[in-house]
């Protein structure tokens, strides 16, 4: 989910913090990418029509592999050096949000069943996408594919967004590419949107720099984190009736959540046992790995063992190497 309303808030109150760039501007740059968000997008979109999904001969879902292959090839063709970061254990503070998502998937499954019974194709399409969940098998398959393509991966101990931000802060990556705005809250110095779109050559990349965001908003990094917590994030409830606009006004007026709560109008109710301080610490000191060796991009593995998931190779002649192609297809070149 990220931070509620942050995109709109920045567009209105920090318009100069967002710069439109061409994808060519990142040629030769290392870009850290949240793999889990990408995989979810692929499972929802690639090869899906209603309840039908892209599979191989064994009936195993391969949408995530097809999408990962296509996206990675396009990034490499553009001269970008991608590093895919995979989620580790979610923090305890996220368990309530994950439980909510699980309940929503259960509700979507019931709605999907009803839509199938009455033959409502539009509802089938809508609810089938809401039942998507990333599994360990999805992650493992993409990790294997990326390794065979010679593309580095990072297995984060915690949240992938936090690890991506850490790579950027520690100069292992030039920027973080994601659609999830809480990457900014984790302090990524440079954040890119739309660079991972399969149509990125037609659409400009939007680049945010945290120092410019803070300057435009007139906030410190600590105040920006408090703003995001008040607006609503994945790790705790927010105060009902306070969205991004009011949260910004309150932080500018009072400086921090403690003072906001002290001076809050009685019509607002602060959630019981509200763990905003723990959430603040999570954003400032997330569980990340800082001992990351230098990244290496290598030629794709030509000695490919074929199995039920990977049947054919796909040639990428500029690199004189071959990529695995999920599912049965004809031998082809790009």
UniProtKB/TrEMBL annotation:
Subcellular location: Nucleus, Nucleolus; Nucleus, Nucleoplasm; Mitochondrion
Sequence ranges assigned to domain XPG N-terminal in this UniProt record: 1-108
InterPro entries for the chain: 5-3_exonuclease_C_sf, Flap_endonuc, HhH2, PIN-like_dom_sf, XPG-I_dom, XPG/Rad2, XPG_CS, XPG_DNA_repair_N
Pfam families the record matches: XPG_I, XPG_N
Main location: nucleus
Family recorded in the similarity comment: Belongs to the XPG/RAD2 endonuclease family. FEN1 subfamily.
GO CC terms in record: mitochondrion; nucleolus; nucleoplasm
One GO BP: base-excision repair
Top-rank taxon, per record: Eukaryota
Job of this protein: Structure-specific nuclease with 5'-flap endonuclease and 5'-3' exonuclease activities involved in DNA replication and repair. During DNA replication, cleaves the 5'-overhanging flap structure that is generated by displacement synthesis when DNA polymerase encounters the 5'-end of a downstream Okazaki fragment. It enters the flap from the 5'-end and then tracks to cleave the flap base, leaving a nick for ligation. Also involved in the long patch base excision repair (LP-BER) pathway, by cleaving within the apurinic/apyrimidinic (AP) site-terminated flap.
PROSITE patterns the UniProt entry points to: XPG_1
Gene Ontology MF term list: 5'-3' exonuclease activity; 5'-flap endonuclease activity; DNA binding; magnesium ion binding
Name of the protein: Flap endonuclease 1
Keyword Plastid: no
Record CDD domains: H3TH_FEN1-Euk, PIN_FEN1
SMART domains: HhH2, XPGI, XPGN
Entry-linked PANTHER family: FLAP ENDONUCLEASE 1-B, FLAP ENDONUCLEASE FAMILY MEMBER
Names of the cofactor(s): Mg(2+)
Keywords: DNA damage, DNA repair, DNA replication, Endonuclease, Exonuclease, Hydrolase, Magnesium, Metal-binding, Mitochondrion, Nuclease, Nucleus, Phosphoprotein
Residue stretches making up the XPG-I domain: 147-219
Cofactor binding annotation: Binds 2 magnesium ions per subunit. They probably participate in the reaction catalyzed by the enzyme. May bind an additional third magnesium ion after substrate binding.
Organism listed in the record: Triticum aestivum (Wheat)
Keyword Transferase on entry: no
Xref: Gene3D superfamilies: 5' to 3' exonuclease, C-terminal subdomain, 5'-nuclease
């Amino acid at each position: 989910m990220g931070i509620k309303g942050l995109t709109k808030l920045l567009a209105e109150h920090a318009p100069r913090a967002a710069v439109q760039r061409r994808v060519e501007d990142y040629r030769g740059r290392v870009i850290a990418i949240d793999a889990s968000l990408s995989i979810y997008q692929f499972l929802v979109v690639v090869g899906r029509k209603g309840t039908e999904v892209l599979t191989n001969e064994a009936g195993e879902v391969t949408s995530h592999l097809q999408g990962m292959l296509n996206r990675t090839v396009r990034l490499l063709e553009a001269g970008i050096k991608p590093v895919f970061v995979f989620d580790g254990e979610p923090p305890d503070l996220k368990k309530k949000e994950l439980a909510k998502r699980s309940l929503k998937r259960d509700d979507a499954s019931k709605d999907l069943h009803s839509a199938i019974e009455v033959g409502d194709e539009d509802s089938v399409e809508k609810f089938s996408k809401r039942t998507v969940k990333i599994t360990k098998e999805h992650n493992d398959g993409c990790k294997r594919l990326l390794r065979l393509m010679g593309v580095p991966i990072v297995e984060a101990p915690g949240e992938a967004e936090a690890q991506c931000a850490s790579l950027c802060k520690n100069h292992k990556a030039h920027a973080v590419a994601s659609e999830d705005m809480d990457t900014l809250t984790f302090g990524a110095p440079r954040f890119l949107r739309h660079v991972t779109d399969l149509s990125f050559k037609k659409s400009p990349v939007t680049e945010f720099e945290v120092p410019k965001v803070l300057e435009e908003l007139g906030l410190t990094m600590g105040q920006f984190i408090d703003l995001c917590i008040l607006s609503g994030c994945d790790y705790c409830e927010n105060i009902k009736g306070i969205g991004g606009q009011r949260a910004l006004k309150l932080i500018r007026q009072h400086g921090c959540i403690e003072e906001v709560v002290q001076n809050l109008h009685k019509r607002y109710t602060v959630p019981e046992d509200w763990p905003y301080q723990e959430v603040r610490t999570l954003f400032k000191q997330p569980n990340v790995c800082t001992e990351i060796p230098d990244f290496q991009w290598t030629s794709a593995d030509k000695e490919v063992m074929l199995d039920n998931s990977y049947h054919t190779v796909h040639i990428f002649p500029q690199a004189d190497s071959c990529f695995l192609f999920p599912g049965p297809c004809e031998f082809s070149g790009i």
